[in-house]
Amino acid sequence: EVQLVESGGGLVQPGGSLRLSCAASGYIFSNYGMRWVRQAPGKGLEWISTIDRSGGSTSYVDSVKGQFTVSRDNAKKTVYLQMNSLKAEDTAVYYCTFQQGVVTRRGQGTQVTVSS
């Protein structure tokens, strides 16, 4: 059974940092690129970042470039999202996802709240 389990979210003050993790199981992790998406309150899903199968290529939405860093450890079957200089507008539920054929796999998400 494919499982994605996100962790690392929480309440952080503006300007703070968090590192999200997404632990994968039930499939060959190193065969798939991974994405992070987020959903802010009352809004739709927003793509944040993609990392390829090896971790050698990454991409980001313009609003987080230079602020967020995606990485992966294929031996640990885990993808990470390092988030720095957090702002109130980064408040959202963050999900890791990947595309398995026509099926989009997604975890349960982890809440990130940026507030003083």
Write a structural description:
With 116 residues, the protein is mostly beta strands. 0% of the residues lie in helices and 53% in strands. The chain has strands spanning 3-7, 10-12, 18-25, 34-39, 45-51, 58-60, 68-73, 78-83, 92-100, 103-106, 110-114. The strands form 2 sheets. Strands 2, 4, 5, 6, 9, 10 and 11 form a 7-stranded mixed sheet that branches. Strands 1-3-8-7 form a 4-stranded antiparallel sheet, with no helix packed on it. Strand 9 and strand 10 form a beta hairpin. The protein is globular and about 40 Å long. The model has no long low-confidence stretch (mean pLDDT 97).
Report on the biggest sheet: 7 strands, mixed
**Beta content:** over 45%
Structural class: mainly beta
Q: Which percent bin holds the helix content?
A: under 10%
Number of helices: 0
Provide the residue-averaged pLDDT: 97
Q: For the record, give the distance between the C-alpha atoms at the N and C termini, rounded to a whole number.
A: 40 Å
Extract low-pLDDT stretches: none
Radius of gyration: 13 Å
| SSE succession | EEEEEEEEEEE
- Tell me the total number of β-strands: 11
